[in-house]
Amino acid sequence: MTERSFILKDEMGLHARPAAMLMVRMLHVRSTVEIICGDRRADGKDVMSIMAMNTTAGDEVIFRIDGPDEEAAMKEVEAVLETGA
């Protein structure tokens, strides 16, 4: 299992666009992806679950990824959250 925290920079948090970008990238990995923000949790492969977290700029989110391609999956998360790619 690998885990990393990020501070959200986008003032709207994980709104529709970044949530959809994350979901699309995570659908291609075999690992499980859990997103944690305080007491809220989301399935990283479910866009509605991600958006329901109601995150905003400055929130700390933790990505917990477990599975055979967890390192590659975390690189995908980093690409979306750090560069918006």
TrEMBL record:
Domain of life, source organism: Bacteria
Compartments, record wording: Cytoplasm
Keywords: Cytoplasm, Phosphotransferase system
Domain HPr: 1-85
Name of the protein in question: Phosphocarrier protein HPr
Chief location category: cytoplasm
InterPro entries tied to this protein: HPr, HPr-like, HPr-like_sf, PTS_HPr_His_P_site
A GO-annotated cellular component: cytoplasm
Function: General (non sugar-specific) component of the phosphoenolpyruvate-dependent sugar phosphotransferase system (sugar PTS). This major carbohydrate active-transport system catalyzes the phosphorylation of incoming sugar substrates concomitantly with their translocation across the cell membrane. The phosphoryl group from phosphoenolpyruvate (PEP) is transferred to the phosphoryl carrier protein HPr by enzyme I. Phospho-HPr then transfers it to the PTS EIIA domain.
An annotated GO BP: phosphoenolpyruvate-dependent sugar phosphotransferase system
